[in-house]
Amino acid sequence: MIPSKLLENAVHELSRLPGIGKKTAMRLALHLLRERESDVANLSDALVKMRQEIRYCTMCHNISDNETCHICTDPRRNAAVICVVQDIRDVLAIENTRQYTGRYHVLGGIISPIEGISPSDLSIDHLVNIVETNSVQEVIMALPSSIEGETTSFYIYKRIKALPVTISTIARGVAIGDELEYTDEITLGRSILQRMPYTGG
Predict the structure, then answer these.
(1) What is the Cα–Cα distance from 137 to 132, expressed in whole angstroms?
(2) Residue (of 147, 60, 71) closest to 107 by Cα position
(3) What pLDDT is stored for residue 147 in this prediction?
(4) Could you list the mean pLDDT of each consecutive 10-residue stretch along the chain, which spans 201 residues?
(5) Measured between alpha carbons, how far is 102 from 82 in angstroms, rounded to an integer?
(6) What are the structural domains of the chain?
(7) HSE (side-chain half, CA atoms, 13 Å) at 186
(8) Burial of 19 (0-12, 13-18, 19+ CB in 10 A)
(9) pTM of model > 0.70
(10) Angle between helix 124-133 and helix 147-160 axes, rounded to 10 deg
(11) Distance, first Cα to last Cα, the chain
(12) Dist. CA 40–CA 19, nearest whole Å
């Protein structure tokens, strides 16, 4: 039994976070209870401000503090190369390799009929529009090597294969079924550098 309803509510909310069980939530709540009130207020303010004010880049759908993210506005990035990823965690994983100098396109998920995610739920139309209207020379498929990931890659391939653009995929140093965010930086970096033509197979 938790002796305080306020503490119980805090533990309940913390335990809703991914990877946080009831015991961990209790430890976190008790830790916050021992912290200075100003420190807890700073944490609370940072979380609320993040949720209310964070934006998504109008060009690539990455998270951003502004209308356009720092990657898309960086003149050193190669705008002619676009790496297509499932979500923001993949952008962070690839950036950590320091091997990629192009831009990104964040789909916001992958096609999954079981979960009710269709192409219209993702930013695929926007990607096609960017390839059609900008001087894009290469599109790199960096989606999970799962059935859903391959389905999404093939769908995009069919949408853009008639356009004058090279379509490639990251080399499969990444194990089948692995998520990019859990792949070590050396393997992921090599996969980007040693990417292969994507043929829709």
Answers:
(1) 11
(2) 60
(3) 86
(4) 89 95 96 96 96 95 95 96 96 92 96 93 96 93 89 95 92 56 64 70 59
(5) 6
(6) 5-53 (1.10.8.420), 75-197 (3.40.1360.10)
(7) 0
(8) exposed
(9) yes
(10) 30
(11) 57
(12) 21
